[in-house]
């Protein structure tokens, strides 16, 4: 807490200064205690001293930022000047605990690599304050990582053994009983290939068979919540924001059931729905239909937010980007289009395959997109900037279904086989060199999803449901306030209210979710221009350089002119440099016309 | 007489005064001259006496208009109506000339007296007063600036202002800061201090520490003896140095210097044998000395002394010798030290011999292995010159005499310069990579031959391709190959290799990442791609722009890369069946691969349309029929259309300009824009600066609880039910209020004059 400045902080009052001048004679018995005796005024001096130690370069920084220290090495103990105490004991771990830079970097939001236009002093102080604040919060966040006690699981083969050869039975044998119980098979041959969906907490599972069988259960305890037959073809099932509501895409319309299996709504404006996606932070249910419409239904108010015509025929491939809530649709012409309810046209279109797109999946961070097409290829795209395939593999029979786990494992269902690829770390893309795990099922795969917060992959196939163990798939630590698998009914209700209060408007969905933290440059420029027109001059225009008059015989007119010219030349040079930077592009264009056209020119670029 | 004169002069001045006062004092004086009768005079007197009653003129006596008996000798002085008698008048000699010098002087004095300044205008006075007040008060208030600034920058202000809470301090600090208060405590502390006992810290007492530090007796003795010896030695040395310093003999110093030089040489030779590295350093020092010598004019016989000697030299042998000595010394100092081994020297010698054949561009450059720049330059020049000679006139003898005339040399230089220029132009035109650049040299010297240039370009491309394939090649061999092989022969492989280059450039990253793509297959796929491209271009009919084509190639490459298939342990059952018939599989593969051709074309078409749609439209202002014939089927002339077409400014480059497989919608999302900041807040001048301050999220979703609380802390906190008093000087450490400073001016504002004003203005400027 910062209060009104104290007399000793900034304004040097005369009285105090006088006192300071009259130095107290030092006594021999004070020799030992000088360190502490200096702190005659209570508290602050000690703190300040430490501050100085921490950042010798920046003594100007305000006190709060000085509290945190980042050590270069992950676990390096600093030895500050030992603070003698009355008892003579020293604090062996003086100062705040060190934090490793890498972890802090993870939480940093400001991109410091970008060069800012030179700020004025006033602005600079603001910027410095903002940066200090950011650093502080990120350090705090990094500190709180200590609370993430759980570690992800892993699977290692014995001395070079291929992990793909390890079968589910082996894994089940090796793990503890509680984990082994998570591997199960539901034999449901009667009602045809199943689609399945886990709730956001990962606790509940719902599945719907092609022939009308819909069920929801707490899959950990295997407690059945409801089981019905809707007597109609079921294309897809999906939990809404909580496990209490269930959307089922039936042959004709979209139906919503509660966890008792009671039909709550029949949404007739969404007809012939093939795929469902739920955007949890916007409370939007996105439906892709056979008629080629992508419809957004706001489930909190029951309104259709947007119905977008994709103009690409039947839509049967849909997924959402969890990073920015953009819906990705796969089309039969090999493109994947990106949609937001705010725009009538796709935000972007990516040509991925030469054949139709069969499946699309995006990882939790929104950086990688996996697509598989009719050309039997599996491609991994980088979604940041270049949109180029990072790696490509041809699979024997193409992947019909793809799914990313929370930690970036990629599962692909090909016929009756499920392949799982793993990357090196969390952020790295899965390497398609070697499958991490493979599993053969009793039927063809029809639905695929990793269970959140559990190392489990749920596979819906024509023979029922298989829950297979995939060590290291899920995030080991859950956020108890956000998605708590163990929450009670009361907690769920509380969370629901909070989530509804924090609901994000649908129109804010865009490719770059950080766009809101940007200034609307276009209208800014417009306003500026209008203002300049109104006033007749540009008030923000920079005044021409006026050299300061100098003393001691240097203020001659010649030197003034010289200085003026210097600044002018510098500006001119900058301008030329800028134009030169842009020139190479132009030159490239101009090149073919420059020389006499040669026959070989057509092969030049 | 003199008294009379004085009286007269006084009278004169008095009259003048009177004249000034006339209208005021004597309003009725018009009747004075006519009235002779006694009654009138009496009346006059009465009037005068009455008028003289009012203060100033009371003592003034009546004017004497005629001679009377009652002339008093004392009344003379009082005649001047307050005009004082000047001392000089009294001191003056009695019988001076009757000149009116004194009167003149006095008149002058009267004249020289300045008139009283007019008081300033009231408004002006007020303005000045305001300025002064403003300056004063702003000066006083500026004392508060740091406080205000601090408050503005403070993260939180708590009202009412209270004394800062004493921060939590551990008990030990509190105790250490504690002072003895009561007499008993004083006594105890005195006791403790007397016995040098530690007051706070129960560690060693000073006495104990001192005893620990103490040494044994022998040690002390030894140490003292050592110190004594050292001191004695030092004093000897000092004395000797002083003595030597006092020696003025030049001869002695010269001998000393020579001795030192010799010693240094000896040392150096010794060092060379023992420690070559150190010797090298020494050598460097020598080199430096040489440089210094070369820079300076010390031994150039250009100094004062040298000039005097030069005059003497004709007659004096000694002087001549001295001069020669100087020159020799210069030579010796500027001579380069040869540190290189003999073999190197030999090589150098050879090179220099070669060099003699060639005109050297740089004056006085010595080729040594140390400077690669110089070396390279020379080398190239030599070769170029040789080539030129070969081409230009074979009749010219191979080896030219070293005594080549200066003109010829100049000519050579010119040709060289020309060649340099040519090469520069070449460099600008060719977009080759730098590796190949220095290798190419125009074989012929025709500056106008474009063919050569194009040929060169083709060759260089080929070279790049070769480099890609077979890695590094020897430069010289490449050069020869280039010179020998005609370009036409290269065309066929070029056709094949060209797409490969495109591929490698495009997907270098990808390949690098995968790392398992066989090199053999590359050309095949590339050729395939090329053929496909040709087909496609035929299909489209008009292959509009090259850019499109390039995009096409990119896309083709992107989509037709033969990706390695996954070796899966568990292959789907259906596929297993398929695999038996490999033929069928392949056919299917090919079919699938080619099925998508129109996919790419459609996509490109779509992209082109999107680009066209997003382009700003040109404005056509032509009016058909204006200034020319109009009517059905008549179109305005091209010239006119061109004249009235306002070209739209080219917008910013599209985001997907370099992404061949991407169409990004450039439309503005107005819904998001409505939520964005549209006006820059005050201290920021650029939107990026402001953006940086709002980039950190403050919600509890993204922050820890403490951080969230801190980020959302209110700026001002007030305690309910408390009176918030205005801030006082005492609150922030000032002693007294400064009202008194202001009041100084306000008390007597009317005293301001111009002088004051000027002073103020100066202040303002300051």
TrEMBL record, chain A:
Signal peptide: none annotated. The keyword Phosphoprotein applies. It is found in: Nucleus, Nucleolus. The keyword Nucleus applies. Pfam families: BING4CT, WD40. Residues 53-66, 531-541, 567-578 have a biased composition (Basic and acidic residues). Residues 1-97, 531-605 are annotated as: Disordered. Residues 435-513 form the BING4 C-terminal domain. InterPro entries: BING4_C_dom, WD40/YVTN_repeat-like_dom_sf, WD40_repeat_dom_sf, WD40_rpt, WDR46/Utp7. One of its GO terms (cellular component) is 90S preribosome. Gene3D superfamilies: YVTN repeat-like/Quinoprotein amine dehydrogenase. One of its GO terms (biological process) is maturation of SSU-rRNA from tricistronic rRNA transcript (SSU-rRNA, 5.8S rRNA, LSU-rRNA). It comes from the Eukaryota. Part of the small subunit (SSU) processome, composed of more than 70 proteins and the RNA chaperone small nucleolar RNA (snoRNA) U3. Interacts with DDX21, NCL, NOP2 and EBNA1BP2. PANTHER family: WD REPEAT-CONTAINING PROTEIN 46 (PTHR14085:SF3), WD-REPEAT PROTEIN BING4 (PTHR14085). Scaffold component of the nucleolar structure. Required for localization of DDX21 and NCL to the granular compartment of the nucleolus. Part of the small subunit (SSU) processome, first precursor of the small eukaryotic ribosomal subunit. During the assembly of the SSU processome in the nucleolus, many ribosome biogenesis factors, an RNA chaperone and ribosomal proteins associate with the nascent pre-rRNA and work in concert to generate RNA folding, modifications, rearrangements and cleavage as well as targeted degradation of pre-ribosomal RNA by the RNA exosome. This is WD repeat-containing protein 46. It comes from Moschus moschiferus (Siberian musk deer). The lineage of its organism: Eukaryota, Metazoa, Chordata, Craniata, Vertebrata. The gene is WDR46.
TrEMBL record, chain B:
GO terms for cellular component: small-subunit processome. InterPro entries: SSU_processome_Utp14 (IPR006709). GO terms for biological process: rRNA processing. Residues 1-81, 333-359, 390-452, 466-501 are annotated as: Disordered. Residues 55-67, 415-444 have a biased composition (Basic and acidic residues). Residues 71-80 have a biased composition (Low complexity). Belongs to the UTP14 family. This is U3 small nucleolar RNA-associated protein 14 homolog A. It comes from Moschus moschiferus. The lineage of its organism: Eukaryota, Metazoa, Chordata, Craniata, Vertebrata.
């Amino acid at each position: 807490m910062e209060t009104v400045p104290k007399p000793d902080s900034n304004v040097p009052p005369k009285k105090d200064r006088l006192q300071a001048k009259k130095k107290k004679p030092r006594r021999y018995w004070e020799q030992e205690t000088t360190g502490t005796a200096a702190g005659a005024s209570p508290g602050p001096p000690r703190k300040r001293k430490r501050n100085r130690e921490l950042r010798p370069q920046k003594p100007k920084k305000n006190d709060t930022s000085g509290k945190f220290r980042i050590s270069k090495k992950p676990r390096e103990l600093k030895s500050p000047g030992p603070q003698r105490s009355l008892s003579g004991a020293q604090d062996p771990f003086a100062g705040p605990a060190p934090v490793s830079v890498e972890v802090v970097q993870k939480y940093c939001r400001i991109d410091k690599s970008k060069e800012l236009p030179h700020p004025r002093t006033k602005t600079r102080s603001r910027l410095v304050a903002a940066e200090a604040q950011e650093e502080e919060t990120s350090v705090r966040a990094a500190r709180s990582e200590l609370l993430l006690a759980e570690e992800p699981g892993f699977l290692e083969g014995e001395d070079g053994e291929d992990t793909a050869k390890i079968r589910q039975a082996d894994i089940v044998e090796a793990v503890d009983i509680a984990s082994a119980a998570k591997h199960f098979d539901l034999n449901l041959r009667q009602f045809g290939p199943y689609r399945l969906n886990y709730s956001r907490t990962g606790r509940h599972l719902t599945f719907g068979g092609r022939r009308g069988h819909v069920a929801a259960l707490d899959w950990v305890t295997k407690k059945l919540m409801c089981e019905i037959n809707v007597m109609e073809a079921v294309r897809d099932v999906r939990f809404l924001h909580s496990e209490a509501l269930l959307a089922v895409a039936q042959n004709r319309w979209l139906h919503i059931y509660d966890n008792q299996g009671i039909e709550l709504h029949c949404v007739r404006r969404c007809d012939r729905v093939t795929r469902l996606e739920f955007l949890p932070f916007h409370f939007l249910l996105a439906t892709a239909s056979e008629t080629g419409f992508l419809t957004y239904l706001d489930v909190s108010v029951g309104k259709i937010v947007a119905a977008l015509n994709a103009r690409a025929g039947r839509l049967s491939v849909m997924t959402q980007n969890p990073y920015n809530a953009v819906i990705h649709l796969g089309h039969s012409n090999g493109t994947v289009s990106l949609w937001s309810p705010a725009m009538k046209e796709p935000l972007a279109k990516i040509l991925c395959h030469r054949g139709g797109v069969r499946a699309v999946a995006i990882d939790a961070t929104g950086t990688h997109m996996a697509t598989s097409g009719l050309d039997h290829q599996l491609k991994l795209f980088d979604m940041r900037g270049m949109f180029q395939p990072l790696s490509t593999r041809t699979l024997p029979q193409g992947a019909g279904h793809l799914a990313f786990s929370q930690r970036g494992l990629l599962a692909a269902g090909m016929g009756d086989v499920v392949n799982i690829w793993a990357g090196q770390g969390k952020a790295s893309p899965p390497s398609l060199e070697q499958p991490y795990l493979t599993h053969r099922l009793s039927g063809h795969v029809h639905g695929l999803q990793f269970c959140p917060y559990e190392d489990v992959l749920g596979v819906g196939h024509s023979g029922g449901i298989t829950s297979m163990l995939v060590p290291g798939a899920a995030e080991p630590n859950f956020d108890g306030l956000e998605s708590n698998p163990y929450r009670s009914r009361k907690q769920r209700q509380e969370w629901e209210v909070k989530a509804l209060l924090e609901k994000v408007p649908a129109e804010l969905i865009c490719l770059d979710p950080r766009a809101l933290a940007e200034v609307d440059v276009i209208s800014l420029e417009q306003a500026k221009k209008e203002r300049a027109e109104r006033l007749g001059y540009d008030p923000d225009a920079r005044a021409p350089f006026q050299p300061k008059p100098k003393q001691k015989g240097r203020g001659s007119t010649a030197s003034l002119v010289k200085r003026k010219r210097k600044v002018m030349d510098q500006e001119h040079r900058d301008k030329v440099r800028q134009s030169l930077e842009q020139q190479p592009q132009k030159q490239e264009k101009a090149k073919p016309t420059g020389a006499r056209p040669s026959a070989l020119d057509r092969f030049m670029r | 007489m003199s008294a009379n004169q004085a009286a007269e002069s006084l009278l004169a001045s008095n009259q003048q005064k009177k004249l000034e006062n006339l209208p005021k004092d004597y309003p009725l004086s018009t009747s004075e001259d006519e009235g002779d009768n006694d009654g009138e005079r009496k009346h006059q007197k009465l009037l005068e006496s009455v008028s003289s009653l009012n203060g100033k003129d009371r003592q003034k006596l009546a004017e004497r208009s005629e001679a009377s008996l009652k002339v008093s000798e004392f009344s003379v002085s009082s005649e001047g109506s307050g005009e004082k008698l000047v001392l000089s008048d009294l001191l003056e000699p009695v019988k001076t000339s009757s000149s009116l010098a004194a009167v003149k002087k006095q008149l002058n004095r009267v004249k020289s007296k300045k008139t009283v300044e007019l008081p300033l205008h009231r408004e002006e006075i007020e303005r000045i007063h305001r300025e002064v007040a403003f300056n004063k008060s702003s000066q006083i208030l500026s004392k508060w600036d740091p406080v205000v600034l601090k408050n503005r920058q403070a993260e939180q202000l708590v009202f009412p202002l209270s004394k800062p809470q004493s921060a939590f301090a551990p008990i030990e600090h509190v105790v250490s800061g504690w002072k003895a208060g009561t007499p008993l405590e004083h006594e105890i502390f005195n006791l403790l201090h007397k016995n040098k006992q530690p007051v706070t810290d129960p560690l060693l007492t000073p006495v104990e520490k001192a005893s620990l530090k103490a040494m044994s007796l022998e040690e002390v003795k030894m140490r003292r003896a050592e110190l004594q010896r050292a001191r004695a030695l030092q004093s000897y040395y000092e004395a000797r140095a002083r003595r030597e310093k006092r020696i003025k003999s030049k001869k002695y110093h010269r001998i000393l210097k020579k001795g030192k030089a010799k010693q240094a040489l000896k040392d150096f030779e010794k060092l060379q044998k023992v420690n070559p590295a150190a010797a090298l350093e020494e050598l460097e020092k020598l080199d430096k000395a040489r440089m210094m010598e070369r820079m300076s004019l010390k031994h150039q016989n250009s100094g004062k002394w040298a000039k005097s000697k030069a005059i003497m030299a004709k007659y004096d042998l000694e002087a001549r010798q001295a001069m020669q000595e100087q020159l020799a010394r210069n030579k010796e100092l500027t001579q380069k030290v040869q540190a290189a081994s003999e073999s190197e020297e030999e090589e150098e010698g050879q090179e220099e011999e070669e060099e003699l054949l060639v005109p050297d561009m740089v004056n006085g450059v010595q080729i040594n292995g140390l400077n690669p720049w110089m070396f390279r330059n020379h080398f190239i020049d030599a070769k170029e010159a040789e080539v030129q000679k070969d081409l230009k006139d074979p009749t010219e003898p191979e080896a030219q005499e070293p005594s080549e005339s200066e003109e010829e040399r100049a000519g050579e230089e010119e040709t060289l310069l020309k060649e340099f220029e040519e090469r520069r132009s070449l460099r600008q035109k060719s977009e080759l990579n730098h590796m190949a650049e220095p290798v190419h040299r125009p074989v012929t010297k025709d500056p106008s031959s474009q063919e050569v240039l194009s040929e060169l370009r083709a060759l260089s491309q080929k070279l790049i391709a070769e480099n890609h394939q077979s890695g590094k090649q020897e430069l010289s061999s490449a050069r020869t190959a280039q010179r020998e092989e005609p370009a036409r022969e290269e065309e066929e492989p070029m056709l094949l290799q060209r797409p490969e280059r495109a591929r490698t450039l495009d997907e270098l990253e990808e390949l690098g990442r995968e790392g398992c793509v066989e090199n053999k297959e590359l050309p095949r796929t590339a050729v395939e791609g090329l053929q496909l491209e040709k087909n496609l271009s035929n299909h489209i009919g008009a292959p509009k722009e090259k850019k499109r084509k390039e995009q096409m190639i990119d896309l083709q490459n992107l989509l037709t890369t033969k990706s390695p298939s996954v070796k899966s342990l568990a292959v789907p059952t259906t596929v297993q069946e398929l695999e038996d018939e490999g033929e069928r599989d392949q056919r299917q593969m090919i079919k699938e691969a080619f099925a998508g051709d129109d996919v790419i074309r459609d996509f490109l078409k779509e992209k082109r349309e999107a680009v066209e749609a997003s382009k700003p439209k040109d404005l056509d202002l032509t009016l058909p029929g204006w200034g020319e014939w109009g009517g059905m089927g008549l179109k305005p002339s091209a010239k006119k259309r061109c004249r009235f077409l306002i070209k739209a400014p080219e917008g910013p480059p599209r985001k997907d300009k370099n992404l061949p497989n991407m169409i990004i919608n450039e439309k503005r999302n107005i819904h998001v824009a409505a939520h964005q900041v549209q006006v820059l807040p005050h201290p920021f001048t650029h939107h990026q600066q402001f953006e940086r301050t709002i980039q950190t999220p403050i919600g509890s979703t993204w922050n820890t609880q403490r951080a969230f609380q801190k980020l959302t802390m209110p700026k001002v906190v007030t305690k309910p039910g408390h009176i918030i008093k205005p801030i006082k000087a005492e609150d922030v450490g000032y002693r007294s209020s400064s009202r008194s400073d202001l009041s100084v001016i306000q008390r007597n504002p009317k005293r301001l004059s111009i002088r004051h004003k000027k002073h103020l203005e100066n202040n303002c400027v300051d």
